[in-house]
C-alpha cells in the first residue's frame, strides 16, 4: 500500500508539472502574438499585456499589493508607428530582417547617393548613414537624435550600397503611460515579511506598421515562469508572503523597477529575498546568477540544493551588474539574484526571438530550484 501511495504521488507530481509546462508554453505563445505587438510602444502593445497579466493574477487568485494590481508611471520614449521604407540600389528591404534603424532616429524622407567611408560604413550626409552588420539587434530610446543610422544585414545584402531611398516616421512620446503589475500571496505565519519573484513583461514593440519583435525568451519566458510559480504558491501558501511583480519599461532603462523602488508598495526592508527572472527560456549550457558574489551564503545554498536535487547542469557565478530589474533593489539593500539561462537559440533583441523556437529546456528544474531555495532561505 505504501508503494502505491508513493507511486500515485510521483505520478500526480509529474502530471502537475506537465500541466504547468503547458500553461507556460501557452502563456509564451499568447504574449508573443501579434495582438501584443512586441509588448511595446505602438498599437497599445504594452497596455494590452498589462491587462492580460492583471487578468491572470485575478484568475490565479492573487491579492493586489496596493489598491490595484497595476502601478502606473510614465517615461519618455521614441516610437515608430508609421512608414518604415528603406531601399538600397533600388531594392526594397524588409524591416527587422534586412535592416533596422537607430532607435533614436527622427522622421526622415530622403533619396540620395551613398559615399563610402570604409568597407562597412556609408553616408548620404552627416545625419544619414548606412552600416553593414553581421547581426541586427534593436533597443529602445528615450530621446530623439538628429542622426539616423540604417543597419543592413550582411547575410541578406550583396554588393556595395550606392543609392539610398528612405522614408521613416517617428513619434516621440514625452509621457508614455505604463504599469507595473504587482500581486501577492499572503504568508500564513509572517505575512508582513516577503519573498519576491520579478520579471519584466515589456519588450521592444514594433518598427513600423508591419514588423514587431516577439520577445519570447526576452522576456515572455520569465513572465510565464513567474505566473506558474504564482499558481503554485497560491495553492501552497508559505509562512512568508510571496510577491510577484511584472515590470514595464525594462528595455527603456529599467524604468519600471526604478519607479517601484522609489515608490514601493511595501517597505523594502520587509523583502527577505528577491529573485529576478529574465532570459530563462533555454538552459542547455546551464544558468548564471548575477549577485552571486554579493550574497555568497545564498549562492552556496542554491548550489547545495541544485547538487542534491540534480537539477541545472551548471550554475555560473557573476558579480554585481546593472543589467536587469534586480539592480535598483540591490542598491537599496534588498538581497537579490538575477537568474538567466544559457545555451540554445541565440536570438536576442531581434525578430527571431520567437515562441516556436524556444526550447524551455530547464523550465521544470528552474521551477523546482526556486521553490526549494525559497523554502530554506
TrEMBL record:
Keyword Nucleus appears in the UniProt entry: no
Highest taxon of the lineage: Bacteria
Segments forming domain Peptidase M28: 180-372
Alphabetical list of InterPro entries matching this protein: M28_fam, Peptidase_M28
GO biological process, one term: proteolysis
Residues of the signal peptide: 1-18
Family annotation (Pfam families): Peptidase_M28
A Gene Ontology molecular function term of the record: metalloexopeptidase activity
Keywords of the record: Signal
PANTHER family: METALLOPEPTIDASE M28 FAMILY MEMBER, PEPTIDASE M28 DOMAIN-CONTAINING PROTEIN
Name of the protein in its database record: M28 family peptidase
Amino acid at each position: 500500500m505504501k508503494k502505491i501511495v508513493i507511486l500515485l504521488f510521483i505520478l500526480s507530481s509529474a502530471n502537475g508539472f506537465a500541466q504547468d509546462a503547458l500553461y507556460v508554453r501557452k502563456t509564451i505563445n499568447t504574449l508573443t502574438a501579434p495582438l501584443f505587438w512586441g509588448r511595446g510602444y505602438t498599437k497599445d502593445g504594452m497596455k494590452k499585456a498589462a491587462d492580460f497579466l492583471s487578468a491572470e493574477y485575478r484568475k490565479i487568485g492573487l491579492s493586489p499589493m496596493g489598491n490595484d494590481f497595476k502601478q502606473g508611471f510614465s517615461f519618455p520614449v521614441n516610437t515608430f508607428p508609421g512608414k518604415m521604407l528603406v531601399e538600397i540600389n533600388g531594392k526594397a528591404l524588409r524591416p527587422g530582417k534586412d535592416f533596422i534603424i537607430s532607435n533614436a532616429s527622427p522622421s526622415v524622407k530622403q533619396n540620395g547617393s551613398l559615399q563610402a567611408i570604409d568597407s562597412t560604413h556609408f553616408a548620404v550626409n552627416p545625419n544619414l548613414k548606412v552600416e553593414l552588420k553581421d547581426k541586427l539587434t534593436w533597443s529602445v530610446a528615450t530621446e530623439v537624435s538628429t542622426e539616423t543610422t540604417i543597419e543592413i544585414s550582411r547575410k541578406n545584402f550583396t554588393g556595395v550600397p550606392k543609392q539610398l531611398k528612405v522614408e521613416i516616421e517617428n513619434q516621440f512620446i514625452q509621457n508614455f503611460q505604463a504599469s507595473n503589475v504587482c500581486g501577492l500571496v499572503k504568508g500564513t505565519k509572517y505575512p508582513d515579511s516577503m519573498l519576491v519573484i520579478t520579471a519584466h513583461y515589456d519588450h521592444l514593440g514594433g518598427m513600423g506598421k508591419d514588423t514587431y519583435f516577439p520577445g519570447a525568451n526576452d522576456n515572455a519566458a520569465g513572465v510565464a515562469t513567474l505566473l506558474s510559480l504564482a499558481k503554485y504558491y497560491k495553492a501552497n501558501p508559505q509562512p512568508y508572503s510571496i510577491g510577484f511583480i511584472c515590470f514595464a519599461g525594462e528595455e527603456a532603462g529599467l524604468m519600471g523597477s526604478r519607479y517601484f523602488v522609489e515608490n514601493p508598495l511595501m517597505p523594502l526592508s520587509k523583502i527577505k529575498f528577491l529573485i529576478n527572472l529574465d532570459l530563462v527560456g533555454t538552459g542547455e549550457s546551464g544558468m548564471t546568477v548575477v549577485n552571486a558574489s554579493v550574497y555568497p551564503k545564498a549562492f552556496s545554498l542554491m548550489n547545495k540544493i541544485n547538487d542534491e536535487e540534480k537539477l541545472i547542469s551548471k550554475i555560473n557565478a557573476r558579480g554585481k551588474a546593472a543589467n536587469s530589474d534586480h539592480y535598483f533593489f540591490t542598491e537599496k539593500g534588498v538581497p537579490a539574484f538575477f537568474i538567466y539561462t544559457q545555451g540554445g537559440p541565440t536570438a536576442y533583441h531581434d525578430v527571431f526571438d520567437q515562441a516556436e523556437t524556444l526550447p524551455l529546456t530547464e523550465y521544470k528544474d528552474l521551477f523546482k530550484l526556486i521553490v526549494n531555495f525559497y523554502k530554506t532561505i
